[in-house]
Write a structure and sequence with these properties.
Number of domains: 1
Order of helices and strands: HHHH
Radius of gyration: 14 Å
Shape: elongated
Number of helices: 4
Largest sheet: none
Number of strands: 0
Helix content: over 70%
Strand content: under 5%
Length: 77
């Protein structure tokens, strides 16, 4: 069986993007409710997104930087 924390990590970005199915959302939320480590990771990722959005709205991002940031995203298989 797959490690539930590894699975949660795989689902973290789609969860934050609200692109999971209702069943997957419920699965992620159940794990986050029971796992302090993953909850802290979730709060970090959420805070990071807020920071990046704020920084991006205050300064104009170059096309090159936007492309580099986009390339860092790891697609789910």
């Amino acid at each position: 069986m797959k490690d539930p924390c590894a699975h949660c990590e795989e689902m973290m970005q789609p969860y934050l993007d609200h692109v999971l199915t209702d069943e997957e959302m419920a699965e992620a939320e159940a794990h986050l409710a029971d796992c302090e480590l993953c909850r802290r990771r979730y709060r970090f990722e959420q805070s990071l997104r807020v920071y990046v959005r704020k920084a991006a709205s205050e300064e104009q991002m170059t096309v090159e930087l936007r492309q580099k940031l986009s390339a860092l995203r790891i697609p789910l298989e």
